[in-house]
Amino acid sequence: MTEEKIPKRRHIRELVMQALYAIEISKDAPQHVVDTILGELKENSNDFDFAQSLFIKSIAHQAEIDKRLKSKTEHWDFHRIALIDKILLRMSLCELLYFPDIPPKVTINEAIEIAKDYSTESSGTFINGIMDAVLIELKKDGLMNKTGRGLLDTQTKKPRP
Hints:
The chain is mainly alpha-helical and 161 residues long. The chain contains seven helices and no strands.
């Protein structure tokens, strides 16, 4: 049986998820977590830069991100949402807001796939529902700043709002 190859960016996101989990559990210094968990990526500066940026921005903007997520999880006690799900939601929203070169569909699909491997049976569906609602709100509010290939509306050929 051959081992399934995990896409490189997914592996990076999994490491970032693990680093964010480590911060939540240990309250360790972010730089120590970067060195310990993300250190294996230092051989490729682009991979390491993406991972470190996603990690740091997820932490730096956590209050703003959590506020947006709480508005979409009104039927759940936010503190009772599975920690892995919460981390994946935070990472995904961070990508939507602060990584203009990553298509929203990619961000959401990656979170769903990672949830299937690391969280509960229903986590993928839960994350998909929350992220779809967040994406609709961000578009409505004009907060989607996406540029580059795959980020154009195919019918109008205009940048997506």
